[in-house]
Amino acid sequence: GDLSPRLNGSERSSGPIRCQRCREVCKGEVVRVQETHFHVKCFTCTVCNCDLARSGFFQKKGEYICTADYQRLYGTRCDRCDSFITGEVVSALGRTYHPKCFVCSVCRYETHSHVTHHPVYEDTGWRTGDRLWRQ
Questions:
Q1: CA-based, 20 to 30 A from 37: which of 7, 12, 26, 72?
Q2: What is the CATH number of domain 3-74?
Q3: pTM of the complete model
């Protein structure tokens, strides 16, 4: 979102700008996220209370959450390595994987290379329903 420190001493036609967290009038440096304003000291993670003004954050259900807490609460984990997945994801048989973790259990090559290394499966495609695919 639009996260930018602002110097604000002016008032809007609807009255002074108020901090979304403490509801006090914002003066001096403030953080603006879209049309919402916060004192820099008030812009903290809803879960752990860490400073969000100088780091990344996510917004979910009106709450502002740091990256670590967001991943812990809502992130998708790889079924093979158990790390959080950011970016591309492979979904197969109800499980999720990093592309590099979705490999053949026989040769350990990534799936896009599988047909090249196991030509016997060219006619049937990838064998996702049997032992060739390991988590």
A1: 72
A2: 2.10.110.10
A3: 0.57
